[in-house]
Each structure stands twice: as C-alpha cells, then as structure tokens.
C-alpha cells in the first residue's frame, strides 16, 4: 500500500531554522537514499553523510547536527558504542537508531533507548520493495521532523534561560520548556468499575511503558492489561519480554483466539492490529491483518473501539507519548460508552501528538505526568473516581 507523505502539515522554513541531520551508515546506498529524501523536504537538510560511528563522534562538534540517523552495524565504531559518546558531546542531540529487523538489532535498539536514543526505525530488508521503502521514508521523515523541531526549540530555550535555582532538577533532555498549564476541559471518570486497562503508545512509548508497568502491579493483578505500541515485528516480541521482567507479571504478544485473563499483559504483535472479541463468556484476542489505521499497524484505535463490544463502559484507557492522533477516535468511543481516558502530559512526553490529540478533543478525565499515572490508576481501580 502506498503511504501518503502529506499526512501532516509541513512547516515552511528558512535555511537558518531547518532541522540539521547527520546520516551515519556504512552503506553508501542507504546514505544516498536517506539523504535524497531529507533533501526533498523544505524544513530539513543533510549536514553530513558519514560511514562510521567513529567519523560521527570525531566530527560532531564541527557539524553540530540536531538529529543523527545512526546505523547499528558499522565498522570501526558501531552505533550502540557511538551513542553514549555522541550524547556526551551534545546532550540534546536527537539520535534515531536505524537497523534491519533481526532479533539482535531489536534488542540493541531497545537498549539504545535506555541509553538516551530518542527513537528507532527499522530499515526495510530491500529498498527495491516499493511499499516497504515508502513506509520507511514516511516514518523516518516524520520522526526527524517532530523530534528535530522539538530539539531545536529546547536548544534555543536552554541558550537563553538563566541557571536553575539550587535544588531544582535539570529539565529532561530534548523536552520543551515548562509552560503555564493549558486550561482544558476535564471529564469526570466513568461511574462503572473498570474491568480492563487499555494502553496506547508510540514514539517514546517503550520507556514510558517500562515506567508504568513497574508501578501498576495491583492493577494488573485485578484486570487484564492490553497494550498497543507502534512497533514492527520482532521488536514487539522483545518488548513483551522486557515488560514481563519489569512488571514481574506474565506478558506476551497477543495470540489470535486466546482468552483474555486478569493478571496478564497482552501486547499487540508488530504488523497486526489487536482487537478484542467475545467468545461465549470469554473475552478473546482477535488479530487483524487489515490495512494500516492512522498509518500504523498495529494501531490503537482498533483495540480501543473493539473493546467496547466486550466491556461497554467498564474500560480505563491510557494514551501515552507518541506522534500523530492514534487513540483519539477510539478514546472518544470509549468515553461515549461510559469509560475513561487518561493522557500523558506534554512536559513528560517525548512527542505530545497522541495524548495531545486526546486532550484537545476534550475526552480526558486526567492529564498527568508519566510519574503520576500509575498511582492514579491504582486509586481508580481501587474505587476512587475523583
């Protein structure tokens, strides 16, 4: 399926405010292809095309990019080894890890996120396959655009801000300055006791999910937890294993037809939508190989909307950091059925696209920093609807 590249508005830019991109990959074909794509965008430019991580580390200060697209497997110095050295030289650098879809590279990409990489992107097995290359192009350009623009805003703010007062924490890398809270309408929490927790996330989601599942043990023990994270195959397999270790609860990719039970975490497998269906008295997983929704597969909206047929208004949903607006339409349906939506706030989100869309749609009962969502969920599932 062809993916339209005009799904989001492209800002006009002068040369001085274009996002500066450094492409680091030992394949001359990949470097050339990515450079052409970036060069065709009015709001970004390639400032260096390098073959190894060592070249990137040695030339970083001279090049001064906003974003680095960093391959994992390279001679001299590979991507995972170059990552901490690059961030040591430029703390606010946005690093997008690029790798082919192997289990080893998926593990390395998730490790890179824990070491400070902003995001990852899977490279297609063959750039000659039109759909795969077009999807790669769309995803890469959107990640560079959103993460790079945010990094530039953060850099400008840091340059003009006075030193922090003693006792104040430093702002998180790559996040925008704290702003006065936006006054948005809040809905009351649903009156029905939730029977399930649904979570949707994208860019920044793996880190956010680890933080969240580590602290919601009492919720997991009470109800099933279903998660859709925008991720390709193999990556979701690894993520499920990480979620199991972090939560100390069973977690795995959803299997078509399996019964959904409390005490378990079910993750949508990469490349398939995870819906919920009823089979007799049981709620079951229904995997869907249909077209992408909101340019994503898996997508959050199919999971959210299908859950209503099973649990009606007894649904608690959470929309975490991510680009786009996936989850907003499904969240509207959940609220209309009597359920509730919690969104991550802007300051703690890597990208405030998905949660921001839900907030702006007026469907949220709470908008909270990541570190407050777990405690709120524990209280809500214990009966506190305030």
TrEMBL record:
EC number: 3.1.1.61, 3.5.1.44
Active site: 202, 230, 326
Localization, UniProt: Cytoplasm
Modified residues (4-aspartylphosphate): 71
CheB-type methylesterase domain span: 190-384
Span of domain Response regulatory: 20-138
Keyword Electron transport: no
Chain segments annotated as transmembrane: none
Residue segments, region Disordered: 152-174
Main location: cytoplasm
PTM note: Phosphorylated by CheA. Phosphorylation of the N-terminal regulatory domain activates the methylesterase activity.
A Pfam cross-reference name: Response_reg
Record Gene3D superfamilies: 3.40.50.2300, Methylesterase CheB, C-terminal domain
Entry-linked InterPro entries: CheB-like, CheB_C, CheY-like_superfamily, Sig_transdc_resp-reg_Me-estase, Sig_transdc_resp-reg_receiver
Family annotation (NCBIfam families): PRK00742.1
Domain topic, free-text comment: Contains a C-terminal catalytic domain, and an N-terminal region which modulates catalytic activity.
UniProt name for this protein: Protein-glutamate methylesterase/protein-glutamine glutaminase
